[in-house]
């Protein structure tokens, strides 16, 4: 049995990133929760 220590990036597609179609391209936006997490982590640098 292997313990998963990190979040798989593909899991963020459904839970942390919103995709929107804009003409022929797709735009993405982080959810508020994921954006807050990102900002907290970048402050530590």
Describe it.
A hairpin with a 2-residue loop joins β1 (17-22) and β2. The chain has a domain at 13-43. The radius of gyration is 14 Å and the shape is flat. It has 45 residues and is an alpha+beta fold. The protein has 2 helices and 2 strands. The protein has a two-stranded antiparallel sheet with strand order 1-2.
Rg from alpha-carbon coordinates: 14 Å
Largest sheet: 2 strands, antiparallel
Strands of the largest sheet, in order across it?
1-2
**SSE series:** HEEH
> Unreliable stretches, pLDDT < 50, 5 or more residues?
none
Shape: flat
What is the terminal-to-terminal distance? 34 Å
Brief overview, please?
The protein has helices at about 10-15, 30-45; strands at about 15-20, 25-30. By secondary structure, the chain is of the alpha+beta class. The chain has a domain at about 15-45.
What layout of secondary structure does this protein have?
Elements (H helix, E strand, L loop, with lengths): L10 H5 L1 E6 L2 E6 L1 H12 L2
Antiparallel strand pairs: 1-2
């Amino acid at each position: 049995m292997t313990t998963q220590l990190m979040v798989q990036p593909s899991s963020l597609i459904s839970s942390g990133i919103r995709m929107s179609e804009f003409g022929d391209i797709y735009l993405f936006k982080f959810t508020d929760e994921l954006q807050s997490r990102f900002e907290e982590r970048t402050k530590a640098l």
